[in-house]
Amino acid sequence: MSIEGKTEFTKPVYTRPRSLVDVKTHFCPGCHHGTIHKIVAECIDRYGVRENSIGVACVGCAVFLYDYIDVDVVEAPHGRAPAVATGVKRAQPDKFVFTYQGDGDLAAIGTSEVIHAANRGENLTVVFVNNTTYGMTGGQMAPTTLLGQKTSTTPYGRDFRSDGYPIKMAELLAGLDGTAYSARVAVSTPAQIRKAKAAVRKAFEMQINGMGFSIVEFLSTCPTNWGMKPLDAQGRVLGEMSEYFPLGVYKERKQADFA
Amino acid sequence: MSSLAAEASKKILLKGNEAICLGAIAAGCRHYYGYPITPQNDIPEYMAAHLPALGGTFLQAESEVATINMILGTSASGKRVMTSSSGPGISLMQEGLSYMAGSELPAVIVNISRSGPGLGGIAPSQGDYFQAVKGGGHGGYRLIVLAPHSVQEMYTLTMLAFDLADRYRTPAMILGDAIVGQMKEPFEATPYDSATTAEKPWALTGCAGRERLHVKSLHLKDNAIEVHNWKLHGKFERIRKTETRAESFLLDGAKIAVVAFGTAARVSKTAIQWARKEGIPVGMLRPITLFPFPEREVFDLAKTVDVVLVIEMNTGQMVEDVRQSTPLHDRIAFLGKPCAMPTPEEILDRIRALAGRKG
Ligand SMILES: Cc1ncc(C[n+]2csc(CCOP(=O)(O)OP(=O)(O)O)c2C)c(N)n1
Ligand code: SF4
Ligand SMILES: [Mg+2]
User: Fold this and answer.
1) Is residue A170 included in any domain, yes or no?
2) Would you say residue A106 lies in a domain?
3) Could you point out which of B62, B96, B253, B327 has its C-alpha 20 to 30 Å from the C-alpha of B104?
């Protein structure tokens, strides 16, 4: 390093996160699951918890979590990841435990499990991916499907009179005393990705500091089932999805009110 | 109650459900999850009172669906874990049990069964036999099913259930009912033999110093799921070959052989002793394991007696396994009581009638 300044060029400015397995993913072009996996992996690296982590995979397009994130992973039945994670965390309170769940998984079949895990203040982290549809099963209506949105089971658009309203989980879970942290983020622009990472870091810190239940809801794309090109799908997240599901931090426990 | 464990070295009067708790704790189980349902509430209540002091976890879950998945998570962590419930709750656990069988996770599930179907009643029943021994959930698997008929056995078979579940990496069930769960008997806390405790190199404990591990039941690639199904099948066949347990009761010279399990067997013992006093050559084969079912024992027995009298607290479930175990179907008789314990008098009457018919 005799020439001044050269050191800066030899120092890598970007590397694959250690916790992200170097394989091709099965996700469709323009799908955000991959980006969200990477953010999770980066945060696992940041806190050095890779060898101390147990992830809980859901049933949905993210079921292959164990192929992509280089940590121990247990697969949960559809919707039950927060209960499985509870069983892991209670057995191994010193381990870092997170779930990764879709919106059908968490906000429909698994509503009970996530609400009660949050309400018990289970000291674990939920990564929640809201793409307003059931990706894996072919684009049916999810509880998060927007009003008017056409899906394979709402061929005329979601109508609140027969199908109810899109459910706002980040807000709902923020209302529970056991929840330490609840935020909604998106990953459709570089600035949003930075904010999303900050939110996941906060959520991880909550668990590491024993503060209780933390959840980060991601607004995500499903170009395949939305019938959109990847770029148009970004536009949908930035437009009507963010309008109905406002981004932001809905709850952040301070050490003081926990003690 | 806190003195129970301390007193456990001598004979005490104990409830069946509490004996299950003592057996679990003796076998090293420190994690219990459950949801209230009659007639097994003594079990969660005992665990709530005692597990925290032992450094363990008692958690009252929001449902049996959540319960079984908490069991799944703790089992995947390599810890011994138990839940208990009754009919409706056990039904809700079936998806999770199928996942656990598919993921090869051990646990002990206690069913202190009640009468059904539906909400049914809280009277004792053996109506969950099919659900317990034929798999219960989807996809094709078996549970190891143990059927205690005394308070002492509630204890010893619970310890055995933990060992078998770990050895074969699959859930084991204690199938009891309101009678054997609620009755009190003299009981002695015999020591647990920990020599049989299995290592769990598959447990998810974080990947420090090793490659990451997965616990899962999804097999999409090539014909991996078929390979997995045959592997599980081989395991259940091994269990059939090596783990069948049954008690022979007064079968010497018997011409009538009762086949009954659990509470029905317990009551039958009284009736058989009365009948023997009357000179009727009757005995009993009592399956202790319902899966694996003592097929060989029934096959051999049926050849040597005139009548095989199957007695169950249901309208006829185990009797199908008896029929499957022997070609001598015309020798099989059945006495069923779907929602109550048969009395020894009823059983004696039937034995007398069968003895008279056979001269
Ligand atoms: C008990 C049960 N019911 C239904 C299914 C079928 N199923 C698989 S994934 C899924 C929905 C997935 O949607 P989501 O959670 O939104 O995840 P995504 O694929 O959109 O990421 C359904 C209904 C199942 N596996 N188990
Ligand atoms: S179906 Fe949708 S959610 Fe699933 S991988 Fe494709 S784009 Fe992503
Ligand atoms: Mg979805």
Assistant:
1) yes
2) yes
3) B62
pLDDT (average), residues B277-296: 98
The verdict on pTM exceeding 0.90 is yes
Residues counted in chain B: 359
Give the DSSP per-residue string, B246-298.
Answer: EEEES-TT-SEEEE--HHHHHHHHHHHHHHHHTT--EEEEEESEEES--HHHH
Contact indicator for A54, A96 with CB cutoff of 8 Å:
yes
How far apart are the CA of B76 and the nearest CA of chain A, in angstroms?
A: 7
Q: What average pLDDT does range B233-249 have in this prediction?
A: 98
Query: Is B247-354 the same fold as B5-205+233-240?
Result: yes
> pLDDT at residue B287 above 90?
yes
Q: DSSP assignment, residue B103?
A: H
Domain covering B247-354 assigned CATH 3.40.50.920 in the classification: yes
Q: Where are the domains of chain B?
A: 5-205+233-240, 247-354
Looking at ligand 2, which atom is closest to the CA of residue A220?
3
Number of domains making up chain A = 1
Q: Supply the ipTM of this predicted assembly.
A: 0.95
Cβ–ligand 1 contact at A62 (below 6 Å): yes
Ligand 2 atom nearest to A102, measured from its CA: 3
Of B157, B313, B180, B329, give the one whose Cα is nearest residue B321.
B329
Question: ∠ CA(A242), CA(A61), CA(B228), 5° rounding?
Answer: 165
Q: What is the CATH number of the domain that holds A118?
A: 3.40.50.970
In a domain, residue A17? The reply is no
What secondary structure letter does DSSP report for B188? -
pLDDT tens-digit series, residues A33-49: 999 999 999 999 999 99
Please say if the pLDDT value at position A10 is more than 80: no
Of A63, A74, A76, the CB nearest to B204: A74
